[in-house]
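quick one before i forget lol
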Amino acid sequence: MSTITVELPDESAVLVRKFADSEGVTVSDFARSAILEKIEDSFDLQELHEAISEDNGERFSIDEVLEELLARPNHRGVFYRPERQNLQELTGKAAEAHFEALYSKGTMTSLTTERLALRPPHDGDEDAVFSIHSDPRTYQHRPELAMKNRDEAFELLAAWQRNWAEDGIGYFVVFREPAEIIGFTGLRFSEEQGQKVLNLYYRFAPEAQGRGYAAEAAAAAIDWARQTHPERPVVAIIDPSNAPSARLAEKLGLHLQTADHEQGHLYRR
């Protein structure tokens, strides 16, 4: 691990500290995230400018571009199924670079609901993963399960990213406008009682609970997953003491299948 010192005017330093405090992160974590995002954005913009300058005038239809994107995985090995909404005629290498920048970040798999936006997890989401999973209020039924340190957040985020890379499906990061991460939900491949299933997961910040966000986001994730993998049933394993989670599962159409699962109650749809 290397250390980089950044010199700022006093007024700018105060502003950075205030913003970091409001986001619930350290100044170091905030600076690291901001610098890496700036570098990534600069590379994307540079690639787009280069593509525009090299445009040979060849034109591609929407169908041709989408066919090309669906034929190869992104940098994590994930094949995405893009929504065909608000797309216009695209132009040569500039169009390819533009789609590649979106494609590599997973935005082609994003889902939207009336109030929320969902996307696959990215590097940099570990702050939100830790903030929500370390809050004992999200584990009122089993406080001892709350996340203890940031290393656990990195490990969990990496596992979620592997699910997307290996299977093209997994847990989503859930946003409330403008860009506030309020929780996580989605489905990943799993196996229960010898059958291949979609394992449902949801966990939301205490401030976002009681407003129907979890049901809204989870329902969208289930609909998307069932469209792409209709052959797999949806299951959720819920601690017997977690009554709110059980009620949400039932609201989403799952029903108690067995109460003697080794990890809790098994709900199925």
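fyi The radius of gyration is 21 Å.
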